[in-house]
Design goal:
- The chain is mainly alpha-helical.
- It is built from 8 helices and no strands.
- Helix 1 runs antiparallel to helix 4, helix 4 packs across helix 5 (90-111) and helix 5 (90-111) runs antiparallel to helix 8.
- The chain is globular.
């Protein structure tokens, strides 16, 4: 009997790389008692003369406050990312993530000067909305997109008004809007 060789595939390069860099950022945060997380992986109001301000507009999506925060975001990213990379390509998902990170980082920096933001939840919600576009034909708007968007935005608005927690519902909404706009744009191109 011939032995079968097990071959591991790096099947979703962007998704896997994002997850690994986020894990490294989390470990660095543990080793530095949060100093690297604050300096490189949070977006907050800081001087525009500081070059790291511009970097943090993007890298805040890689930082996480705890292992449970990391796993909550990254598990969904690992479920959604490979299908989206297969459908739209790794490069397109990379740029969609950059745009979502920049938009959510700028919104946080402009409107919430006394609060820091970190985590991949905006990117995850961008992916949720993009995934709901799956199976759409032609130029029509899929009902799955409408239902997911309504339920999702409705819950985030409710939570933002009535629930006091450390979760940025606005970032989720921004991620969802980016997912809808970018997903529709990518769908038309492909």
């Amino acid at each position: 009997m011939k032995k079968r060789k097990i071959i591991f595939q790096y099947n979703a390069p962007f998704t896997l790389t994002f997850a690994l860099i986020s894990l490294i950022a989390l470990i660095l945060g543990w080793l530095t008692d949060g100093a690297t997380t604050t300096k490189f992986f949070c977006v907050y109001r800081s001087s525009l003369t500081d070059p790291l301000t511009y970097l943090r507009f993007f890298t805040h999506t890689l930082g996480h406050a705890s292992l449970s925060h990391y796993t909550g975001n990254i598990l969904l990213l690992l479920v959604l990312g490979p299908g989206l990379e297969e459908r739209y390509g790794s490069r397109s998902i990379f740029f969609a993530t950059l745009i979502t990170a920049l938009v959510s980082g700028l919104v946080q920096w402009i409107f919430f000067p006394s609060v820091a933001l970190l985590g991949a939840s905006g990117v995850v919600f961008m992916m949720i909305i993009m995934a709901s576009l799956g199976g759409a034909r032609g130029d029509g708007i899929p009902l799955t997109l409408i239902f997911v968007f309504l339920f999702y935005v409705g819950e985030e608005v409710y939570d933002g008004i009535f629930v006091s927690d450390n979760i940025s519902q606005l970032t989720h909404i921004v991620g969802g809007i980016c997912g809808a706009v970018l997903g529709m744009s990518l769908r038309r191109r492909s």
